């Protein structure tokens, strides 16, 4: 437990961040209500329907999740800050074990074994693995310096980061696994070589080109580049000959191997998501239906939107999963471009505030964890909104604080308020 008096500790909490959280969660609940609203529903369902009847509505269940999140916030803030550092590896190890258990005992849902059922409650461990991985990585990085450390330390950090997503992929939940790549942004802040980010970005571009451009054209292009370097400066080329040939061979191997990976490793629904991203108009009534209807909903809102509870795309269920993955459609349709811009502005303000809180930490652990939180939220926000606009593949990434789901709300709440607890202790130290 924190040792400061309640009044002093209360003053130490970063209240602007708390206010942003409350606003986003409140707007998220209104969006969930709007996405499931029916004109035929009772005017006052809380007084006219039984509890079992209310539990059929996502907005009511989300209200219960919000209530439990408040209890969770209190626990996170009164917990001694040292627990986050001391228990980081233990929580990480426990989560790895839980992911393994989930892989084998979870009931398949839409082809994925990623949900644990505890009576009437379903939880997705992959959501909370982001929190434990961020803690463990921050704890490890507090004891090293990425600018000067050897490859062994960097391989350990890579192992900490990659183990949970590998287990998540093994459970056929690829979307959540992608989020862990966002942690590279936090590592970059702590001194990771920008060359790693450039190499990963280059690999992504090459793989994308291999899907869009004929293989012989790409092989000819990269071979021409290699020969061009040789002609331009033979002495330098001969000095770096093994490296140059190695890079060329790696690139050609990626180009030739992308078809095998695409056809034999990716599942059918994953291939369809990539095909829809590349050419969304190829099958607008089939695999491109979600994205097509999502873009229609966003565009139909115009500048000011149709008004709260007036979205026709929502009322007639044109957009599947509108209270979860495609919740941003409700915002765009009912509140238009202006409402969408306000929501994006709130997210950007929250991200700025988290970075501000991270930068004022006195410990590497606190600063790194703060950047991990910002990176995870940024990834979720951009990918989810990109999904609804047809700019990113549909990978089942929830919109923080907006998408329906207890696991999602709890995981983002834990990420954010554990950072505020660590930050509150820093301010207590300054007051002593």
Explain what the structure shows.
This protein is mostly helical and 432 residues long. It folds into two domains: 6-191 and 364-431, no CATH class; 198-275. Helix content is 72%, strand content 1%. The chain has 21 helices and two strands. It has helices at 6-12, 15-35, 45-48, 51-54, 58-78, 82-86, 88-105, 125-141, 151-170, 174-178, 183-189, 194-212, 215-232, 234-239, 241-265, 268-278, 289-300, 312-315, 327-359, 364-389, 406-431, and strands at residues 116-118, 121-123. It has a two-stranded antiparallel ribbon. α5 runs parallel beside α21 (406-431), α7 (88-105) runs parallel beside α9 (151-170) and α20 (364-389) packs antiparallel against α21 (406-431). The two termini are 17 Å apart.
Label this structure with key terms.
432 residues; two-stranded antiparallel ribbon; 21 helices; 72% helix
Question: Would you identify the regions where 5 or more consecutive residues have pLDDT less than 50?
Answer: none
Helix percent band: over 70%
* Overall pLDDT level: 82
Label the overall shape: globular
| Beta content | under 5%
What is the terminal-to-terminal distance?
A: 17 Å
The tally of beta strands, per DSSP, is 2
- Helix run count: 21
For the record, the count of structural domains works out to: 2
State the major sheet.
2 strands, antiparallel
The ordered string of helix (H) and strand (E) elements is: HHHHHHHEEHHHHHHHHHHHHHH
Radius of gyration: 24 Å
Largest sheet strand order: 1-2
Helix/sheet category: mainly alpha
